[in-house]
Amino acid sequence: MLIFPAALQNLSDQFARLPGVGSKTAQRLAFHVLSLPIEDAEEFAAAILEAKKQVHTCPCCQNLTDRELCPICDDDTRDKSVICVVADPKDVIAMERSREFQGVYHVLHGVISPLNHVTQDDIRIKELIDRVGKGDVEEVIMATNPDTEGEATAMYISRLLRVLGVKV
Ligand code: ZN
After folding, report:
1. Does residue 1 have a pLDDT over 60?
2. pTM here?
């Protein structure tokens, strides 16, 4: 016998699938959503679908955007000859906050991680090599995390880029 109505249990299960959300928190969130006015619940559900439909990766730097080209790639004042390689979109936000970097980015969407079965083909390395291969890039700065996986990923990419004659 189910203690909760199936729909409530289902909602709770969906929250529990989110990273960092345990079953207790998931239950609390499900109860909270249930207590919302119907308009707020609709807004919440619509926000999930809208984000999914509108946000995609920039074809140039792979950062998340809702435009054809992201605002940084689309900015003529940015130096397109210098690419800063980061693991995640949130790293771009952190870099931009310092306002010191005038070049452009490349977002890998992860790092190579044998333990988590993430290989070089699972992150956006090919896109970076293709981009550099077009010839207008002079320098690539590796800004992945200074941990084992971040370093290994940076080493792997650096080797590929040096073959193309780019300063890394
Ligand atoms: Zn871009």
Report:
1. no
2. 0.82
